[in-house]
Amino acid sequence: MTALWHDTAHDLCDVEALRALYGLPNEASVKKEADHVHPLYRPFIEASPFAVLCTVGPDGPDASPRGDAPGFVEVADAHTLLLPDRRGNNRIDSLRNVVHDPRVSLLFLLPGHRETLRVLGRGRISTHPGLLARHAVQDKLPRSVLVVHVTKVFFQCGRAVMRSQLWEPDRQVVRESVPTPGQVLEVLSDASIDGAAYDAALPKRQRETLY
To answer: Which residues belong to any copy of the Pyridoxamine 5'-phosphate oxidase N-terminal domain (predicted)?
Structure first.
């Protein structure tokens, strides 16, 4: 018996089919869109400590978390955002994608708020000394700064956050209910990485290498 998710007979493969099922967006869904960082949208970005950066590369799409103190993404002007690249794992998945394809999008989250903010644009990677110095934290410079030319901005309604109860304290996931990073690495590395040792060292290493 074929699994339901392998049955393609009911797949929607064109925009016309999608519109026939979903209909047209309401007026509010269209009117909320701006082609720049509108003054009413700017506070969302300046208050957000967390965003998801989405890019597209030769191997397909990627989504990467970005976070720091509120305002870590700077609104340079109505059409420009500046996103410093902090220390990470050096995979540079997002940056490699931007070099290949400058199209980017950002999803900003605000703790405790239902609405999120979506920003679309085109990015370029800068190592201008002035930009690096502008975004130094604890006397540490970012490796680079992603300069985003904004082409579209709009807020996303709060239904997804409401359904997920994302910010509700009693919905926090117990640490022991999912595998630890070390447990994952030990299995996927065929035990060349000691999972217990990795987990023991991880909190201190992360604290000392935030910037």
So the answer is: 41-157
Torsional sign, CA 83, 84, 89, 95: positive
Number of H helices, E strands in the chain: 8, 7
For the entire predicted model, the pTM comes to 0.94
Cβ atoms of 134 and 72 closer than 8 Å: no
Q: Does domain 25-164 have CATH number 3.40.50.620?
A: no
Q: CA-CA distance, 68 to 114, in Å (whole number)?
A: 20
As beta bridge partners, residue 155 has: 117
Q: Give residue-wise pLDDT tens across range 119-141.
A: 999 999 999 999 999 999 999 99
Within 10 A of 83 (CB to CB), how many other CB atoms are there?
23
Query: Under DSSP, is residue 30 helix (H, G, I), strand (E, B) or coil?
Result: helix
Domain boundaries, the chain: 25-164, 173-208
Rounded mean pLDDT, 99-114: 98
Distances (CA, A) of 57 to 75, 85, 92, 148: 25, 18, 12, 17
Give the span between the Cα atoms of 196 and 44, in whole angstroms.
Answer: 40
For residues 45 and 38, what is the distance between their CA atoms, to the nearest angstrom?
11
Give me the DSSP letters along 74-103: EEEETTEEEEEE-S--S--HHHHHHHH--E
